[in-house]
Amino acid sequence: MSSENLAILSEGVELDFGNGAGIFDQHYQVPQGTILGMIGPSGCGKTTTCRVALGLLIPQKGRITTLGRNPARFRAADRERIGYIPQQFVLYPRLSVAENAAFVASLYGMPARRVRARLDELLAFVDLSDARHRLAQNLSGGMQRRLMLAGALMHDPVLLFADEPTAGIDPVLRARFWEYFRQLRDQGRTLVVTTQVVSEAIYCDYVAVMRKGRILAVDTPENLRRMALGGEIIDLTLKNPEEVHRALEVLKRWKDVVRAAHRSPNPDAEADIHVVVEDAREWLPEVLNRLENQKPRISVESAAPVEVSYDEVFIRIMEQDQRAQEARHG
Amino acid sequence: MADAPLIEKTVPTGAGHGGVPAWRRWLIRARAYFLKEVNEIRRQPLLIMSLIVGPLLVLILFGATYVNSTPRVRTAVVLPPGGAPGISEEQIREVIGLNFDLRAITTDRAGAEAQLAAGDLDLVQIIPENAANALREGVSPQIEFVSNAINPLVEGWIQYLAYAEVNEINKAILRATAAEAQREASTIRVRVVDAEGKVSELERGVVEARAQAARRDIGEIRTTLESLEQALPSQEFLSAQGGESARLRPTIERLKTNLDRIDRAIADNKLTEALAEIAAAKNDLRALNGSLEIFVNTPPERLVSPVTQSYRNVRGGAYPAVVYYAPGVLALLVQHTAVTLGALALVRERLMGAFEVFRVAPVNLTQLILGKYLGYTVFIGLATLALIVAMTLLGVPLLGNWLLFAALILLLIVASLGVGFLISALSGSDSQAIQLAMISLLLSIFFSGFFIALDSFAWPALVVAYAIPMTHGLAGFQDVMLRGIAPNPWTWIGLGLIAVITFALVVLITRRQLLKA
User: Fold this and answer.
1) Is the Cβ–Cβ distance between B155 and B147 less than 8 Å?
2) B11/A107 Cβ within 8 A
């Protein structure tokens, strides 16, 4: 992808705070008009990664461009194109919803006339129109989060950083936030969203899995799943459990398609087999044909792609990284 | 999930300012902080009330209840066991009650001292035994003052009042002595006139060679002079009166010498020499008579207190306490409000993480600090205006130029905000900022000249005093409001320096903090 179409391009970025803290050898790019989710445990460097991309921290090594410029040398005009929702609540309790949002807009140099027009639009967007004159100190946690989103969008940024915007809010509101984000993405904005909630990966166009300051993998959620599991899994239930052994031999011989085949990890399902292929939906009919065409025929009672949770995908990636590190260090 | 309303489907430009010129965007950003501060403050009516009404109520209470600055010293007088002969209780009450709150006149010294130790009395005065005899014998009797003061100012007052009381007693004694001397001198003066006649007779006796009679006359005149010498007050006292009174005793001495010489001349039969001395004695007797006349006719009060005083205040009189302290209250209000608001201005936002948002946004430090300064300045300016109006209703004048007055208030606000912002920049928490603001208040009360004059301090304290905006504000307000003159140039220079130095330090420290945010 041409660098002109990238909102962020990070090449070997490193910022070492000492004692293992910091970010290390970060390579990633964020295409314009996409959502990049940064997922990882607390303290893994998500916020630091955002702060480097925002120009708040200067890397010791590597190169990073945000909206085509080195963020350490951002001018006011560059900053006017970026929105930011910090992890902490930055709301003034004695200001109303409208005043809080207008304050942020004014920091970006928006004239009052435009603030008024934009405010109506955004308060409707985040469902806060009725709370327009309510003081921030009287808002619920979810409303405060929505107000921060509205504030960050007031100046119509092309790139929005949201640092754990869904932390500590209920699943319904969390889903709603992702709906907002996807709408913003659909308008052509680029979003970088950090989260500790692994299941939120599904809402992102790209996901960066982070551990101890490093980006272990950055790809689409589907590709990450494939990467973690070695492909996609088809769950087969044979009519006759005694044919499991023969079916496994047949599938394992079909090396062009089948990457792995083994009994289901569920001990109660004697007749179940898990088959790993690159694309479960594409290869499911072929796998069924291959078994049905055996002589004697291996009858399949049911077959379906397995939906492995992103929690498991995340854990597997972490474990793979752990093993790789242990291998490196003997 | 219900669909969220979509925002307008336009391609984001990242240019929310919509082509607004850069200079205007700069002002909009500074205004953002200004409006935020104003909106936050106006949502705190209790704060506004406490800032305006609080100091005003204190001032009114002070003005309505302040009596005078002299402390009431609860005093007991201890008389000798036999009392004070010749002095009535009424006289004691009159003299001592002038400066002290006389609670008891007793002969029980131990009891009075026990009350003193218990804190029921502030002072015990012990009158010596046989004061009158001691005086007659030329010994100075001593009144013993024993206090248990713990306040250095009160102790100073007691010592001063004791001095004044003893001074009054001394004057009363001198008045009585002088009156007595005048009475006796008046009687002796007749004999002095008579002595003048005797000198003439002496002259004739000498001429007629009646030596026996002449020497008798000399003896009579000498007796008269000695009586007069005894009756007159001391030479120190007479010298203090100056003029004729001062010459009384020297003239008597000269006359006595004359008489000795005349006596010797008669004995030696030196007629010419005796006549010359007699002529001199006649002149001296005449002069003595004249001096006595003046001494006798001078009021005893003038003899005791020859120098009097007159006092005139060019303003007609000093202001009542409530008016005099009003400029100080105003300066204290302006400074304390500015320091307190300023002290919380940066630390709260730094702790809540707003600095991070400010760094991401295209705002700079100058806009941040200027906007905040402006917001607080407007608020404090309005609060000050309200207080000035209230003070005017209380009769506090503004004799000077109101433009100078407004400029001085503005400069005091800015300088005080500088101190507050500096506290804010240095503080690690809200409570630390408040604590430092309170310390600045204490410093201001002690070292600004509000209650204790700056002259009372050694130079290290003056360094602190001149670093306090209120010190300059107070002096300037007193000049403009009460004296009707322009503030001293050092007032402007002092406030200006504080404003500039604190602003520079705030910018320096906050810039570093922003970079760490």
Assistant:
1) yes
2) no
**pTM beyond 0.80:** no
Give me the residue from A121, A156, A183 closest to B14, CB to CB: A156
Tell me the CB-side half-sphere exposure of residue B424, using CA atoms within 13 A: 28
Residues B85, B130: Cα–Cα separation, whole Å: 8
Of chain B, the end-to-end C-alpha distance in Å amounts to 38
In this prediction, residue B378 carries a pLDDT of 94
Banded model confidence at residue B106, pLDDT cuts 50, 70, 90: very high
**Yes or no, beta carbons of B5 and A81 under 8 Å apart:** no
Letter for the amino acid at B412? L
Instruction: Measure A238 CA to nearest chain B CA, in Å.
Output: 38
Using a CB-CB cut-off of 8 Å, the residues of chain B touching A176 are 1, 4
Consecutive sets of 10 residues in chain A, 330 residues long: mean pLDDT of each? 81 92 93 94 93 95 95 92 91 95 94 91 91 95 92 93 89 88 94 92 93 91 85 89 90 89 79 87 90 88 86 86 81
Are B408 and B476 a contacting pair, CB within 8 Å? yes
Question: What does DSSP assign to residue A200?
Answer: G
Do B253 and B228 touch, CB atoms closer than 8 A?
no
ipTM above 0.95, yes or no: no
Q: Looking at this protein, which amino acid is placed at residue B504?
A: A
Take residue B225 and report the two structure tokens written for it: 């002079």
Containing A141, the helix (H) or strand (E) segment is helix A141-153
* DSSP 8-state assignment for residue B91: H
Q: Which helix (H) or strand (E) holds A37?
A: strand A35-39
Question: Distance from B498 to chain A by nearest Cα, in Å?
Answer: 29
B37 to chain A: closest CA residue: A95
Distance of alpha carbon B395 from alpha carbon B390, whole angstroms: 9
Note whether A57 and A64 are within 8 A (CB).
no
Is residue A103 a contact partner of residue B32, using CB atoms and an 8 Å limit? yes
Contacts of A187 in chain B (CB under 8 A): 7, 9-12
Interface A–B counts its CB contacts (< 8 A) at: 149
Q: How confident is the model at residue B2 (pLDDT cuts 50, 70, 90)?
A: very low
Q: Rounded to a whole number, what is the distance in Å from the CA of B32 to chain A's nearest CA?
A: 5
Q: Give the pLDDT of residue B59.
A: 74
- CB within 8 Å: A135 and B43: yes
Q: What is the mean pLDDT of chain B?
A: 86
Say if residue B465 is exposed, middle or buried (CB neighbours under 10 Å; 0-12, 13-18, 19+): buried
B504: closest CA of chain A, how far (Å): 23
- CB atoms inside a 10 Å sphere around CB A282: 12
| Contact yes or no for B29 and A107 at CB 8 A | yes
Chain B residue with CA closest to A135: the answer is: B43
> For B5, which of A118, A125, A172 is closest by C-beta distance?
A125
